[in-house]
Amino acid sequence: MSDAAEAGQGSGRFSLELGADLVQVRDWLHDFAVSVIRPAAAEWDEREETPWPVLEEAAKIGLYSLDFYGQQWLDPSGLGIPVVFEELFWGDAGIGMSLAGSTLAALAVVANGTPEQAGEWCPQMFGGPGDVKLGAFCSSEPDAGSDVAAIRTRAVYDAARDEWVLNGVKTWATNGGIANVHVVVASVDPALGSRGQASFIVPPGTPGLSMGQKFRKHGIRASHTAEVVLSDVRVPGSLVLGGRARLEERLARVREGGNAGEQAAMKTFEASRPGVAAMAVGIARAAVEYAAEYSRTRVQFGRPIGQNQGVAFMLADMAASVDAARLLVWRAAWMARQGKPFMRAEGSMSKLVAGETAVRVTEQAIQILGGNGYTRDFPVERWHRDAKIFTIFEGTSEIQRVIIGRAITGLDVR
Ligand SMILES: Cc1cc2nc3c(=O)[nH]c(=O)nc-3n(C[C@H](O)[C@H](O)[C@H](O)COP(=O)(O)OP(=O)(O)OC[C@H]3O[C@@H](n4cnc5c(N)ncnc54)[C@H](O)[C@@H]3O)c2cc1C
Which protein residue's CA is at the shortest distance from atom 27 of ligand 1? Predict the structure, then answer.
C-alpha cells in the first residue's frame, strides 16, 4: 500500500452524504412534519399546551418512542439525531420540543446512569401508543441558571431507610410537573460546589413533587415549561444516577483534592448540544424556504421582489448561513459519535452558530414578507419567536462563547 493510501488520501472516505437509511428516515419525518405537525402548529402555539394528540399520532407510527430515538442516537455517522431534530423543528419548534423534550431527560440517564437505570427508566419517559408519557430534566433553579454550581436543591441520604430526601425548587423545566419521570440535579455536598452534585430519578407519582407556576412564553409555546417543587421527596437509595457506590467514590476523590470528572449536568449538556443546534437549523431552514418562495410570488414594481438584489442577497446570506450552521452541527455530532473529544468546544460552536443563525434568519424572513411577516396569518413571526430560545437554553450564547474562549485560549475566561 502506498503512503498516500495508508494516510487515507485518495481513498474517498470523506463524505457528507447521508446513508440510505438516514435519507429514508429524513423523508419519512418530513412527510410527518408536512402532514401532521405543520397543520397543527398555529393552534397549539395559541393554546400554549402540550399537543397530546400529535404525540399520540407520533407514538402510533413509532416516531415518539425510545426505540426510534435510541436507534438514531446509535447511527454510526452520528447524524441520526441531528437529521431527526432538523426535520421535526422544520415542522414546528413548539411541537418539536414536545416530541423531543423527553430525550434530554433520557440522555441524562444514559450519560450518567448505569445500564440498568437506563433500561428501567428511559422507556417510562415515552410510554407507548394509547399511553404516551414524558420525561423532564430539572437542573435550572431561580438562582442557578447559567451558574449551575449555585444549585441549592439538596439531596440528603437517610441511611436508616436507604432513601434520598430531596428538597428545593427547580425552574424552567421542560415537561416539569407533567412528566412521568423527573431527573433532578441536586447537591449532595454543598461544600464541594458543582463537584458535590448528583442526579436523581424521581419515579412517577412520588409524593412531595409538584408543579409550581407554568410559564407563559414568547415562543415554543406548544412545549410545557414549569417550576418543579420538591418538598421532602423520598426516593430509593438506588435512584442516584450511576449508583451510590460510584457517587461516594467520586466525592471521596474530590475531598482528597482529586479530579471528580465532569459534573452531571455539564455532561448532559455537552452531549445534547449538537442535537439542540440541529433544532435551530430546522427552524432557520423553514424560514429560508418560506421567504424564498414568497420572494418568487410577491410582485412589486411589476416584478417579483426576489428579482431585487436587496432581497436576493438577503436570501443568499440566509441560505449560506443555514448550511454553514448545519455543517458545524454535523461535524460536532460526527465527532461525538466517533468518540473524539471536543478540544475546541465544537459542540458549543454548533449551538452558538445555529442558535444565532436561527434568530437572524427568521427576522430576515419577516423582513422579506413585509407586513404579512408581522402577522399571525403567516408562520414566520412564530418561527422568529420560537428561534429566540436557542440563544438562551442549554447554555446561553454568552456561555457558549465562554466555553469556546476557554477551549481556544486555555485561559480561565469569565
Ligand atoms: C423555554 C425554556 C425551557 C427550558 N428547559 C429547561 C429544562 O428542561 N431543564 C433545565 O434544567 N433548564 C431549562 N431551561 C433553563 C435554561 O437552561 C436557562 O434559562 C439558561 O441556562 C439561562 O439561565 P437563566 O435563565 O437563569 O439566565 P442567567 O444565567 O441569569 O443569565 C442572564 C444573562 O446573563 C448572561 N450571563 C450569565 N453569566 C454570564 C457569564 N459568566 N458571562 C457572560 N454572560 C453571562 C447570560 O448569557 C444571559 O444573557 C429552560 C429555559 C427556557 C426559557
Answer: 145
DSSP 175-201: TTTT-SEEEEEEES-GGGGGGGEEEEE
Are the C-beta atoms of 92 and 285 separated by less than 8 Å? no
Residue 394 among the catalytic residues: yes
pTM for the full model? 0.96
Query: Does any ligand 1 atom lie closer than 6 A to the CB of residue 145?
Result: yes
Per-residue pLDDT reduced to its tens digit, 349-389: 999 999 999 999 999 999 999 999 999 999 999 999 999 99
Report which DSSP code applies to 232.
E
| Alpha carbon 180 to its chain's center | 19
List Cβ neighbours of 387 (8 Å cut-off, separation of 6 or more): 93, 219, 280, 283, 284, 287, 355, 358, 359, 361, 362
Sign of the C-alpha dihedral computed for residues 41, 47, 50 and 53 taken in this order? negative
- Cα separation, 252 vs 52, whole angstroms: 45
Q: Which of 269, 275, 286, 268 is nearest to 387 (CA)?
A: 286
